Fold this sequence. Notes:
The chain has 15 helices and 13 strands. A hairpin with a 5-residue loop joins β1 (about 35) and β2 (about 45-50). The chain has helices spanning about 1-25, 75-80, 85-95, 120-135, 140-155, 160-175, 185-190, 195-205, 220-230, 280-300, 345-350, 355-370, 375-385, 390-400, 400-415; strands spanning about 35, 45-50, 55-60, 100-105, 110-115, 210-215, 255-260, 265-275, 305-310, 315-320, 330, 335, 420-425.
Amino acid sequence: xxxxxxxxxxxxxxxxVLGLAASAxxxxxxxxxxQEKLLNGxxxxxxxxxxxDKVTLKIRIHGGSAFDPQDKEGVMRLLSGSxxxxxxxxxxxxxxxxxxxxxxxxxxxxxxxASARSSEFLTLLExxxxxxxxPELTRESTTALKTAMLxxxxxxxxxxxxxxxxxxxxxxxxxxxxxxxxxGTAESIQKIDFADLIFAKERLLTADNATLAVSGNIDPxxxxxxxxRYFGAWLKADKKIPSTxxxxxxxxxxxxxxxxxxxxxxEFRFAARGLARNDPDFYASxxxxxxxxxxxxxxxxxxxxxxxxxxxxxxxxxxxxxxWNLGTIKKEGNTIALPASINFYQKxxxxxxxxxxxxxxxxxxxxxxxxxxxxxxxxxxxxTYKLGPVLKExxxxxxxxxxxxxxxxxxxxKEPFAFVLVFAGENAATSRN
Length: 433
């Protein structure tokens, strides 16, 4: 009797564990979505999550601020702002649909992330489709968008860290798109009119230049029917716009000193060109980023950071220190006397080979950060960056080798670096060099 009771107890426990595991698995979207391409060229991905209480919609336009005309930087940011231009249009998602809204615009793409209760799926789809396929672009709406963007730029330019990031990007890339500000400048925004936004919309905001990913407790067949209904009239482009740009020259030598908007502050940056997102060594480069950052922070603590920004074309490695050696920076008349140790960082943190211990620690962290719930984002990346099979990407992330990380480090060691110091003394800022 005791043995029989124990057996029954064991079976019940196993059933409970398997049930919980199945429930947890059901919460996550399938790694492989159902796919369809509409007649207008829009690619649609549907991830079915039976137990989800909300539906999530992600739509990505595969063209971002890299396509801003020179001297009119900020066009794509303004265009993305036209989708939901006022507070009422944005709070509709939280107040009426019980969800959320986020619009992202970077050098590579524009993306709308929206969610709603599952019962509001059709309303969610219709609202986003109307906003993206037919944004309100008039002289009056463009003026309002420009006013809001000028306020954001003013706020950003009051931050010494933003000034430093922009200055080192310009030093590294020059007039190449990645050297120009995504937000634009006060001068470039003033030059933009609504005709520029119309032109950008017709070139890039088209159905065949977009991918839509939907996940939640939805019937895929219904999702495809609804997508055809609400997005089917979205126009496709007359012709594709190639993302070809003249490659930037090597950065100039020296350390220019840029005015800080805040007295008694400093921000030091040095940067080199990195990899493209579709480079075979992408995951090795992200592992190297963490390894070098660990080295960096042993000396600088939380003041130091390392940023690795792979893009459609080769991006950048950026190293930064806030409050860098403030006491050793001396102003002599109208010039700055820089410490002799200004070139120390590049030699200190990039010459040492990657050790097995460094690699093992960071590689475990990297694998642990892989988030299956974000699989739809990886499918969007596959279209934006022309990646290989998505499941192969996940395997590549988990199988990074020490030799690959060392190879990326050796490439980085050979790259010319751009240096910038943003500085202001106690009572006055420096002169610009």
